Amino acid sequence: RSSDLMTAGIRPVDTLVVGGGLNGSALAYYLTCEGITDVLVTEATEPGSGATAGSMGNVRQQFGTPLELECSRRGLAFWKSVEETFGLACTFHEDGYLMVTGHEDTADILRRHADAQRAAGLEDVHLLKPDELPDIAPFLDPTGLILGSWTPADGHVLPLDGLTALAAAARR
Fold first, then answer.
1. What's the pLDDT at 12?
2. Would you give the distance in Å from CA 53 to the centre of its chain?
3. Beta strand extents in the chain (DSSP E only)
4. How many CA atoms lie within 13 A of 75 on its CB side?
5. CB-based burial of residue 20 (10 Å sphere; 0-12 exposed, 13-18 middle, 19+ buried)?
6. What distance in Å separates the CA atoms of residue 72 and residue 116, rounded to the nearest whole number?
7. What is the Cα–Cα distance from 144 to 105, expressed in whole angstroms?
8. d(CA 18, CA 26)
């Protein structure tokens, strides 16, 4: 009962978000954008200590279905605009994304995905032969590789920067 909780010093909330990482903070932010103001985000330990802490922060468009491609297109636009939108540091590092393989079946998947990306309007995808790979990644030994897929507009963010920006925006 609500009165029992209040007596115990616990206040009921309209919306409880379980998980205080990037996803939970994003959910809280978008709920507040919809006018839901009584939102509590919970986390077992520290905010961002779960999946967010283990994330590399990669932002890429190398997918193969229309839904994945639309989500990745929106995600790329979001991460490139976080600093401007929220006024907090969350630098998008446009250093590209390179996938490589030495297996023909995986190379076929990369080719199909590149075709799907181009069909969805993501023209900046490049299929690279092994001898072209060191131009993108000089540290990479292309021996045994048969194909690379390179999207130079992709990159990464620091996940905790994104978490900080989204959580602050939700609180505002």
1. 85
2. 13
3. 15-18, 39-42, 58-59, 97-101, 126-128, 147-151, 155-156
4. 21
5. buried
6. 13
7. 14
8. 12
Phi then psi for residue 34, to 5 deg, are -90, 5
CA 53/CA 49 separation, integer angstroms:
5
Write the pLDDT tens digit of every residue in 19-60.
999 999 999 999 999 999 899 999 988 988 989 888 999 999
Separation of alpha carbons 117 and 139, rounded Å? 27
Contacts 24+ apart (CB under 8 A), 116-123: 116/63, 116/64, 116/65, 116/66, 116/69, 117/61, 117/62, 117/63, 117/64, 117/69, 117/151, 120/66, 120/69, 120/70, 120/73, 122/61, 122/69, 122/73, 122/151
Backbone φ, ψ for residue 10 (5° rounding) = -110, 125
Neighbours of 30 (CB within 10 A): 13
In this structure, is the dihedral angle defined by the CA atoms of residues 48, 52, 53 and 58, taken in order, positive or negative?
negative
Q: What is the pLDDT of residues 140-160, one digit of tens each?
A: 999 999 999 999 999 999 999
Q: Read off the amino acid at residue 16.
A: L
Q: Two tokens at 93?
A: 């590092």
